[in-house]
Amino acid sequence: MENNTPTMLSVSSSPHRHSGENTPYIMQDVLIALVPAAIMSVVYFGWRSAMLIGLCTGTCVLTEYVCRRIMKRRQTISDFSAAVTGVLLAFNLPPTLNPVFAVLGSIFAIAVVKQMFGGIGMNFVNPALAARIFLLISFPSHMSKWSLPFFYLSDNATTDVVSTATPLAQIASDNMTTPMIDLFIGLHGGCLGETCALALLLGGMYLLLRKVITPHIPIAFIGTVAVIALIAGQNPITHVLSGGVMLGAIFMATDYTTCPVNKTGRVIYGIGCGIITMTIRLFGSLPEGVSYSIVLMNILTPHIEALTQSSPFGSEVKSSGK
What we know:
This protein is mostly helical. Helix content is 57%, strand content 0%. The chain has 14 helices and no strands. Helix 3 packs across helix 4 (99-114). The longest helix is centred in the N-terminal third of the chain and has 24 residues, at 47-70. It is globular and about 80 Å long.
């Protein structure tokens, strides 16, 4: 006999298949990927580095908690996105920065850049980079003091703490003295998390293996920086390993909320970041341009997506003919 019992079908909107990945899952992977750079920053810059990382992370999480309570919205501190913002902000700060400024930057990143626009997924620029630019503009002298690696082991640490120039400053003055191997392993002055390229590469490889990020933006960003440096007659490897190129290309330009979703858009976005970075480095008054380049390309992301989005299957394509 035939079974005439009607089949009950469930009607729902796409997507119909889920990978099981969610925001906490992804953010935990990002935090794990940041561990090598965090360890090396503590090795090179001592307790100040650990203090700034902990302070920024704690302030970001607390600020998000308070903001969500004030706005009477669901708490989101358990998704770890605020913790990621705190670590990335700390990675963009000098080791000797006054902790008060770190707290101000953390509050600005979460309260102004993130929560005032609706929370995670709604901010139009990267919160950590926006906070770094806020601190650069507000406290330029404090944000440009660089310490020697292992300064905390010196008997005269108060003198050595600000007695070094970053590789980018050396490039700008045509007096590059930092050996290539030191650039790679991080034995030079700079922000907490940007000096050790090796640690950043290890973190980037982890994110690629976990499929948290795709290689399109990092390769396009780093490749553009290298090509422009070569055209300008400068050492491309030096430019790639100096400053925040590695940190920005791997961990901040790839932010889900502020980068394009399609592959073509990501390549264009990465190339744009590289062009703006090198334009500032070669012709600007500032030695570094990574933060500004990523924030500017964040703003252009909706336009990039509009120009590179694919047509839905079955839709009519407008022709330029009759």
